[in-house]
Amino acid sequence: MEYYMRSIYKTIKHSFLMVSRELHTYTLLSVSIVLSFSFLLGFFVYFDSHIYNKYKEVLSLPSTIIHVSPSALYNQNPVDHIKFQLLSDRLDRMNETNYFSYFVSDEELNHYSDDENKVIVHQYFIPGDAAGSYLYSGGFKQINVIEGSDTLVNPFEVLIDERLFSMLPLQQTGGIPTVVLPVTINGVTVLKEFTVVGIVSGRKESISTSSGVATHYCDVYMSRDLIIDYSCNYSEMGICIVSPYIVQITQLVRSLGLEVITTDYFQRQAVDQIRNQIILKGSIVIIMFTLLGLNLYSSFSNVLKERRYEIGVKRAVGASKKDIITQFFFEGIVVMGANICITLLLVLNLAVIYKLIQRVFYNSQWIININPHSITLFAFCAITLSLSSGFVFAFQSTQVEIIKYIKAE
Amino acid sequence: MNFIVLKDIFKSYGDTSVLRGLNLEIQKNDFTAIVGKSGAGKSTLMNILGLVEYFDAGHYYFGETEILSGRDYSHLRSNQIGFVFQNYNLISSLTCKEYILLPTLYSKCPPCDVYNLAQMLDIEHLLSMPVGVLSGGEKQRIALARALVLKPKVIIADEPTGNLDKDNKNIVIRLLTHANEDGCAVVLITHDYYIASNADKIFELRDGILHEKYL
Ligand SMILES: Nc1ncnc2c1ncn2[C@@H]1O[C@H](COP(=O)(O)OP(=O)(O)OP(=O)(O)O)[C@@H](O)[C@H]1O
Ligand SMILES: [Mg+2]
What we know:
The complex is a heterodimer.
Chain A: H1 2-21, H2 23-60, E1 65-69, H3 78-92, E2 98-104, E3 109-113, E4 117-126, E5 134-136, E6 140-142, E7 145-148, E8 157-161, H4 162-167, E9 178-185, E10 188-200, E11 207-210, E12 213-223, H5 225-228, E13 236-242, H6 246-255, E14 259-262, H7 263-306, H8 308-316, H9 321-362, H10 372-397, H11 402-408
Parallel strand pairs in A: 4-12, 8-10
Antiparallel strand pairs in A: 1-13, 1-14, 2-4, 2-13, 3-4, 5-6, 7-10, 8-12, 9-10, 11-12
Chain B: E1 2-13, E2 16-27, E3 31-36, H1 42-49, E4 57-62, E5 65-66, H2 74-79, E6 81-84, H3 96-100, H4 114-120, H5 136-148, E7 154-158, H6 166-181, E8 185-189, H7 193-196, E9 201-206, E10 209-213
Parallel strand pairs in B: 3-8, 3-9, 6-7, 7-8
Antiparallel strand pairs in B: 1-2, 1-4, 4-5, 9-10
Bound molecules: adenosine-5'-triphosphate and magnesium ion.
């Protein structure tokens, strides 16, 4: 037993020696291993990161948010108010359920414009303590206060987003920033000065440029009291609900003839899409695995052709088939292992470079992500291919006829 | 007690029949020399003796073992036979020392002192050199050292002095006689009658069989 262990150890050591000495025979093989595995791993990293970056916002939302809006937008049907009232009454009686209603202003008013810039302000009318909640406007978004106060104490206080804040000429304010905003009261638009009490994070796509004019889209959160107490005009209204009873509320809202949209729905949709893409990924992996296997098989066979003489000599001086098998098995493993390590480093560096390119040239935050599935799948590919190449290599090594090759040299 | 017995050995390559009913008996401490014309089949005989080539017909007993076609006798090659090939069969990517110690990878037998052996063969200054760069005579002595390193029971040497000068020939002969005195059978191929004269028995390989020669 001890002798056996020692001989295995000696053979492994010898395998390392032979790999280092026969490095030139392995160059082509190594290039092909690194390329194929980089392709596979790169595909995983790109694919996973793509999915992650595409769905991260949707999936990071709480799954308990429900948004209700009137069935027809831009059509202020008095019946909708009654329906909203009915819904509120029912929601009041539900446990663990919070809700509030809000309004969105009539039009996207040109707050400011000149030859080069145009500022469009989107006005939301929310309860004074609604900061932190999610609204729906093309997608769910959070009123995320990043500086200042998060409550509107009186109707003439506002929260504005970063972009608008950065455009305020501060010297005019004398310390407390103010902003002049148009409000439409009974059909008459007047400009009023509002005190800025807090800053919220802005929209992602907040600038668009067309024919030399940069359009800045900004959000302003104003007090809902303006609508209720001062009867300002608005164009849309909605109710935001946070509740674990998604199914019941959804049914209730539908039965009232109102539109409902939930974060849960978006998340399920995202999960569905991800699942479809995973199936796609799986089929691509199977194809690549097969190609890689064939490629490795022929590459190892080629290496072996150059080593037949060596095998013949070793057999002639007493190596058994087992010795040769062990040597070449470990050589296969060593070569595969080393190349897979190189692959890991290579792909990691490429991903970081890609991330930097995204940051510098496209100003977007691309997060590198690889999920446990992919890691398992890659490890599976790497291990099975290493072992099977090792075995194939080893098996082919025994096919060498001693005398044929030692005479040939 | 015969250590090696060849009985009626036939071997041919396609239409050329090389060995035709060859007989040979070697005892434990025999020193046998074989001479013969080029192409007579001496190397073929050696390859069969050294268990690296199969024969077509006949019987071959190595110690207690009857050698059969198609079987693997690597344990005999590694533990009992020291083979010096006519074309050296070096592995050029190894250093001399690594090559000389190669058989120890495959055998349980303890190796002899490599430096001692190298000193006797005047190759100790070559030990860390790659095998590929050596001269013919140096290669020959490295190959011999590799064959001797495990103190085999039989040394099969196919023209071990072909590329050597007189001094080195003498060194090799001394080493082989030394091993022979220690109880190792030696089978040697040579064209050189002076070398053959060191042997107990001399055979000439002619027409596929061995003819004993008396000097
Ligand atoms: N694999 C082979 N296929 C065909 N013919 C072979 C093969 N090996 C050897 N021969 C032939 O067998 C004959 C004997 O060869 P062998 O190498 O045994 O000669 P030898 O006596 O050792 O000659 P030398 O003194 O030149 O080394 C030669 O005619 C050779 O051409
Ligand atoms: Mg010959």
